[in-house]
Amino acid sequence: MPVLERYFHSAELGRRWTVPGGVLPSSLGSQSGCQQGPLPWDLPEMIRMVKLVWKSKSELQATKQRGVPENEDALHSLPGDVRLRGQTGVPAERRGSYPFIDFRLLNNTTYSGEIGTKKKVKRLLSFQRYFHASRLLRGLVPQAPLHLLDEDYLGQARHMLSKVGMWDFDIFLFDRLTNGNSLVTLLCHLFNTHGLIHHFKLDMVTLHRFLVMVQEDYHSQNPYHNAVHAADVTQAMHCYLKEPKLASFLTPLDIMLGLLAAAAHDVDHPGVNQPFLIKTNHHLANLYQNMSVLENHHWRSTIGMLRESRLLAHLPKEMTQDIEQQLRSLILATDINRQNEFLTRLKAHLHNKDLRLEDSHDRHFMLQIALKCADICNPCRIWEMSRQWSERVCEEFYRQGDLEQKFELEISPLCNQQKDSIPSIQIGFMTYIVEPLFREWARFTGNSPLSANMLSHLAHNKAQWKSLARTQPRGAGHEHTGPGSDQDAHTGPAADAK
Fold it and tell me: What is the DSSP letter of 225?
């Protein structure tokens, strides 16, 4: 029995939200539940839930002292690249099988379950902190607050959520205001505002637990591919899902898939790219035969968390299988090596004017394009935020280059801080990757206000980097600075560096 279920019994906390009549709509593709605004919470039920959470505080602290029982953490005691086969028959990566990259991976040392066990205990014990941070979503004040977040901060975060559809949304500020829980807080809010919780009869506590799993499985030591990047991509995806050309055709299932894929598209990213895994003979490169190695791992990790949390366990088996396969298609589309494939298809559709968004296949293709845009939209943000992201991704590149130099490997393109400057990397990335994709996206949207705004920022930011490049000595490198995230989406002639 999972530890959280032992504390939060399903009879008390697992009561699922029901739609009128108590029956799940026969077609989850219907649009009826999608256009509704946030539905009112059953406050007495939520208050009882909060009381039970705070009441369990002492028990959770006792768990911290004891650790997780071995039989409940068997998943994390398995070595290496062990995978689970879930009820739908699709193999799922064991979460925690992909630690941060260091010399242990180069020496092919077996990954013990110790780190996974500590990670799971930390996640369970962090539930109260996340629950406290997300109070702003419900307007509830616990009887015994943990005082981890000041009320002023909660108020500011709540105000920011009211403007989550604005393109100038500052994800760095939002992450600070939510005490590092930007991904969990943002997803809970978006699932509520899109009516997904009620439409799919999701259990709120289970949804929260799943999102905590996703957020915790991003590596905070990555400067770029971390949970803040995931939250930023999710916020961008939300903006794209609101584009008039697309929004009127989307079903609740489309919206849920888009948000889930955006949130988990880089989960458990190691901070190095696919070529690094291949030349170090990493077990995942062998497992996926050197094809979309990171993206396949991100997807299987996501499926593993969905099954572990049992978020969709109440849905028909055929539907959960379809959701898993669509998530696979969306996440694998973020492979930068497939950029030309998707760009060519999009150009052909726009030239032939044969996109039929009433058709589920065409809608899914545009969701793939939207996710690709969201994943590499940093150069289209305002300069202050775009520059931060650029410095972070280059810091991650340089760290990989230092690691390759340390182990006497050939330094990957764009990873040599002595030769590859941030301006030159960003100018190439914008020219060869970002501009072609966003020009076609603007054609699809009919040059909507958002598309025009993004292209304007892109032109301004490119000019800024060119100006900085002129003032920087040729070959000037970069001094290391910050934390971390995912390399899969940032390259100039950049496919190699991904």
Answer: S
**Residue found by looking up tokens 């029995």 in the block:** 1
Tokens of 173: 């500020």
Q: Which residues pair with 91 in a beta bridge?
A: 85
Residues 142/146/152/153 CA torsion (nearest 10 deg) = -110
Burial 256-286 (b: 16+ CB within 10 A, else e): bbbbbbbbbbbbbbbbbbbbbbeebebbbbe
pLDDT at 111: 37
User: Is the pLDDT higher at 83 or at 278?
Assistant: 278
Contact 180, 167 (CB under 8 A): no
167: which residues sit within 8 A by CB, 6+ positions away?
239, 381, 450, 453, 454
What DSSP state is assigned to residue 71? G
Q: How far apart are CA 275 and CA 186, in angstroms?
A: 33
Q: How many Cα atoms occupy the beta-carbon half-sphere of 146 within 13 Å?
A: 20
**189 catalytic, yes or no?**
no
CA separation for the pair 175, 226 (Å, rounded): 12
Joined tokens for residue 382: 């305002």
Percent of the chain at pLDDT > 70 equals 64
**pLDDT tens digits for 286-300?**
999 999 999 999 999
Whether residue 425 is predicted with pLDDT greater than 90 in this model: the reply is: yes
**In sequence order, what DSSP letters do the residues of 277-314 get, joined into one string?**
HHHTT-HHHHHTTTSSHHHHHHHHHHHHHHHHHTTTTT
Residue 280: partners with Cβ closer than 8 Å, 6 or more residues away: 105, 106, 407, 409
First to last CA, the chain: 40
- AA letter at 187: L
Q: Each residue of 203-249: pLDDT tens digit?
A: 999 999 999 999 999 999 999 999 999 999 999 999 999 999 999 99
Catalytic: which of 208, 225, 269, 297?
225
* pTM of the model as a whole: 0.72
Non-local CB neighbours of 88 within 8 Å, separated by 6+ positions: 317, 320, 321, 324
**Token pair listed for 488:** 């899969």
Q: What is the pLDDT of residues 84-106, one digit of tens each?
A: 333 444 555 544 444 344 444 44
CB proximity list for 41: less than 8 A, separation 6 or greater: 138
Can you tell me whether residue 222 is helix, strand or coil?
strand
Q: State residue 255's pLDDT score.
A: 98
| 344 CB-contact burial (10 Å; exposed 0-12 / middle 13-18 / buried 19+) | exposed
Pseudo-torsion of CA 102, 104, 106, 110, nearest 10°? -140
> In this predicted structure, which of 85-99, 409-423, 449-463 has the lowest mean pLDDT?
85-99
